[in-house]
Amino acid sequence: MLHKEIKVLLVCNAGMSTGIMQVKLEEEAKKKNIKAQILAIPISEIEEYLNDTDCILLGPQVKFAEKDVKKMASNIPVFTINSQDFGLMRADKVFKQIEEILS
């Protein structure tokens, strides 16, 4: 169980397709009584947010950038959301991954 507020970046090409996942992840956090600040952004803005995040989730459409994002983020966990979980908006599974990574 996470005891502090978590800050998560949800990254895609333009920041739009992740908007729905953002809302669903916020609902998941609320169900678990976890304070979470989840921000959906386009990949072009990622550097602006690196100093203030605990975890970076990449939408499947930007999986190609995972290696570069990991270099940029150095000590921040980065993972690409499973394309089926993303397509079906399975926020419960994605949030479980966040919890595992940050525990």
UniProtKB/TrEMBL annotation:
The modified positions for Phosphocysteine read: C12
The Gene Ontology terms for molecular function here are: kinase activity; protein-N(PI)-phosphohistidine-sugar phosphotransferase activity
Tell me the GO BP annotations in alphabetical order.
phosphoenolpyruvate-dependent sugar phosphotransferase system
Quote the protein name from its UniProt record: PTS sugar transporter subunit IIB
Lineage of source species: Bacteria, Bacillati, Bacillota, Bacilli, Lactobacillales
Stretch forming the signal peptide? none
Q: Pfam families in the record, alphabetically?
A: PTS_IIB (PF02302)
InterPro entries in the record = PTS_EIIB-like_sf, PTS_EIIB_2/3, PTS_EIIB_3, PTS_sugar-specific_EIIB
